[in-house]
Amino acid sequence: MPVRFVDLSVPIEESPSEPFKPEIQHQGHEEGAHVMSQIFGVPTEMLPGGLGWANDNITLITHAGTHMDAPWHYSPTSKGKRAQTIDEIPLEWCYSDGVVLDYRSKKDGERIEPEDIEGELERISYSLKPLDIVLIMTGTDKYWGQPDYITHGCGMTKNSTLFLIEKGIRVMGIDAWGFDRPFASIIEEYKREKDATIIWEAHYAGIQEPYCHIEKLANLHKLPPSGFKVSCFPVKIIGASAGWCRPVAIIEK
């Protein structure tokens, strides 16, 4: 059947939204011609138009742009065993039915709790099944490109993350900088309450059960609540805590 593809990623770029900015150096066709001349021993003027290949050199962390976190990112162990690195994630986790849960009505720094998930599933009349890919919509992607991007959005908690894992969900994602609430909100609350259990709690849920989540999604508002597939295979980086990916929603017309 005819299908529609929706890009759910933000680009890898030197964006003000990235606190750990990628460094991207583009090598033009003229420079590429000189490299090819040295490799092949051919004068540059004998190449088509005197030009060679374009190339790029990028320095970045594995958590730049839209990426998938592996259990190894959260802890060296998960469920009492060595946690999986991104190259060890089962491919079956990364292609499945998708479901969008809408929390755009929540304010920056608010929590998404299990009862919020149950309420949203009831609203959209959807029952989760194992290996569904759950996408959390906060509306934060509209701030991409702005320095305050990382301060916006609500976030998941340990309990809500474990709620999804217990339903058989192994990949989930969010259209914000992090899966937890924004760091600024967590820091403010910790200073006030001195409760360390709130720090990175959704990530640390992976200590109990292995799961992956995708951060910095985009365009979730272009999707129906369900009835589509998600493809989100991460780049295979041996021993890494995360891998860049370009998640795509596939919707049959």
Task: Report on this structure.
With 253 residues, the chain is α/β, with parallel strands linked by helices. It folds into two domains: 23-59, no CATH class; 67-252, Putative cyclase (Glucose Oxidase, domain 1, 3-Layer(bba) Sandwich). 20% of the residues lie in helices and 23% in strands. The protein contains six helices and 15 strands. The strands form four sheets. It has a nine-stranded mixed β-sheet with strand order 1-15-13-7-9-11-12-4-14. The protein has a two-stranded antiparallel sheet with strand order 2-3. Helix 3 (114-123) crosses helix 4 (158-166). It is globular and about 70 Å long. The N and C termini lie close together (7 Å). The mean pLDDT is 98.
Largest sheet: 9 strands, mixed
Determine the CATH superfamily of the largest domain.
Answer: Putative cyclase
Class by helix and strand content? alpha/beta
Assign a percent range to the helix content.
10-25%
CATH arch. level architecture of the largest domain? 3-Layer(bba) Sandwich
Here the CATH topology of the largest domain equals Glucose Oxidase, domain 1
Q: Tell me, rounded to a whole number, the average pLDDT.
A: 98
How far the N terminus sits from the C terminus, by CA atoms, comes to 7 Å
List its salient traits.
single chain; Glucose Oxidase, domain 1; alpha/beta; about 250 residues; 2 domains; 15 strands; 9-stranded mixed β-sheet
Produce a short descriptive summary.
The chain is α/β, with parallel strands linked by helices. The protein has six helices and 15 strands. A hairpin with a 2-residue loop joins strand 5 (77-78) and strand 6 (81-82).
